[in-house]
Amino acid sequence: MKKLVYYAVLFVFSFVIQFLCSKYINVLGIFPNFILLVVVYFGLSKKTVTAHLMGFLFGLMWDVFSTDIFGVRAVMFTIVSYLSGRIFKSFDINEIFSQFFIVFLAEVIYWLGFTLIPFIILGNSVPAADYIEIILTIIIAPAIFRFLNKVILV
């Protein structure tokens, strides 16, 4: 029960940071993807089921409040948590360059899925990558990972 409450508080806190603080932490109106960083961190540091569940719930909740195709973020965050846990588990998550590399690949996978799924389903044109968001997310990754290392005790 303690873990459940703890994860629920982290879940709410992550959404507050992502959506309410984004107007203060941005460059040219573009803000980093904090939730992706939390999902990657869970994939690297927690059990597989916990990481997948958190990735799915983060994506599902974001999909509920967005106007995009329902379920795309849930699928993408689940895939990112899976790949983080399976492929990058051997990486040292406390090493800054490892964090940069893992978050870069997670952002690319997220972006590819988030643009290709609507392209396949709706036939929309594929927009150019949002390089600023990718760069911002990579830059803040070490700070967020360090914060999560200190905060996540269970």
Describe the overall structure.
This protein starts with a helix and ends with a helix. The mean pLDDT is 84. The chain has a single domain (2-151), classed as Arp2/3 complex 21 kDa subunit ARPC3. It has 154 residues and is an all-alpha fold. Helix 2 crosses helix 6, helix 3 packs antiparallel against helix 4 (72-86) and helix 5 crosses helix 6. Helices cover 72% and strands 0% of the residues. The protein contains six helices and no strands.
What is the CATH domain class? Mainly Alpha
Number of strands: 0
What count of structural domains? 1
Percentage of residues in DSSP E strands: under 5%
Helix and strand sequence:
HHHHHH
Fraction of helical residues: over 70%
Largest sheet: none
Outline, from the CA principal axes?
Answer: globular
Which features characterize this protein?
single chain; 154 residues; mainly alpha; Arp2/3 complex 21 kDa subunit ARPC3; 6 helices
Short description:
This protein is mainly alpha-helical and 154 residues long. It has one domain: Arp2/3 complex 21 kDa subunit ARPC3.
List the helices and strands and how they pair.
Layout: H1 2-20, H2 34-45, H3 48-64, H4 72-86, H5 96-122, H6 131-151
